[in-house]
Amino acid sequence: MESLAKHPPTFLDLLSRPLRSLRLSVTDRCNLRCQYCMPEEEYVWLPRKEILTLEEVSGLVDIFAELGVNKVHLTGGEPLVRRDLAALVTMIARNPRIKDLAITTNGVLLAEAAQALHDAGLHRVTVSLDTLRPDRFTALTRKDAHEKVLNGIKVAGQVGFKGLKIDTVVIRGVNEDEIIDLLEYGKQISAEVRFIEYMDVGGATLWSMDKVFSRAEMLEVLTRQYGHVEPVAAVSAAPADRFVLPDGTVFGIVASTTTPFCSTCDRSRLTADGTWYLCLYAQHGIDLRSPLRSGASKAELISTIVSVWTRRSDRGAEERKEIRSRDVLVSVEGLRQDPHLEMHTRGG
Questions:
Q1: Looking at residue 230, what is its pLDDT?
Q2: Which three-class secondary structure string do you get for the chain?
Q3: β pairing state of 241-244 and 230-231
Q4: Measured between alpha carbons, how far is 93 from 70 in angstroms, rounded to an integer?
């Protein structure tokens, strides 16, 4: 184990994808009810006693880091509703193998938490923002918190976060008319905007293909407004294809619905209760909490993770694209029976 710690190997799955990026959901709770993620009135939550402690989370991250993971992205639910989040960031940031420690937040609590997160060692912040219109924000999220989100973004820049990103889920008939406005807003605050196709993941119970505003359509809108849009040439496992406008503005498009990137996906997801998923569309996960709490050794946990990853062949987005009559991924009844299938449980 000593040599493993000094020289992290590269473990490849069956499609030659390395174990590199861990999406870490720290809670399944959220303070918004966005249409594309949590549109229902009632939800089944993970039992509190099953939520991993900070020490358990940090310990598992250290094990993943020994196996080659160098990117950790904190998600939820809404990660900022976990009150001890800054302490967890401090623990993870101490690991020199973690080169990129980021968070995706809806921004509602960001103004209050930004300084503590920055001081704790968080590297980057991504804020989900689907509209610049307060009334539309309330309709989308069922909460009047638009001003808080914009203020949170402002404060994040003031405390020193660099490389701020704005994530926008584009839904036909809802907010596709704001693509230009959001990109211009990104310019004003020095943030890179990433437009995301509406995905049929667990939790998106209102999803239908006719609501998907595709990457091709987004580029058409942007080309009409700005002229030639140039792809940014890069070899990357990042989910967003990046483009640059004639004035040098860079933006991204995550086109998982119409143009999946499964062939380069190096991400896996760990839920707040220690269930490890190899794909956003996966129907089953691997329980790491039980062996951890039962006293499994580091070597045993490493063996489990390596064995599972090297047998990984998941390509959920590609398989979904191949379905002729594509509908929602999981019914409301199915989600209530297994809350792990929810987007807000396993993170984006």
A1: 96
A2: CHHHHHCCCCCECCCCCECCEEEEECCCCCCCCCCCCCCCCCCCCCCHHHCCCHHHHHHHHHHHHHCCCCEEEEECCCHHHCCCHHHHHHHHHCCCCCCEEEEEECCCCHHHHHHHHHHHCCCEEEEECCCCCHHHHHHHHCCCCHHHHHHHHHHHHHHCCCCCEEEEEEECCCCHHHHHHHHHHHHHHCCEEEEEECCCCCCCCCCCHHHECCHHHHHHHHHHHHCCCEECCCCCCCCCEEEECCCCCEEEEECCCCCCCHHHCCEEEECCCCEEECCCCCCCCEECHHHHHCCCCHHHHHHHHHHHHCCCCCCHHHHHHCCCCCCCCCCHHHHHHCHHHCHHHHCC
A3: antiparallel
A4: 11
Q: Which residue has the tokens 């006693």?
A: 49
Q: What is the mean pLDDT of residues 62-91?
A: 97
- Cβ–Cβ contacts within 10 Å for residue 192, how many? 19
Does the pTM surpass 0.90? The reply is yes
Task: Write the pLDDT tens digit of every residue in 119-144.
Answer: 999 999 999 999 999 999 999 999 99
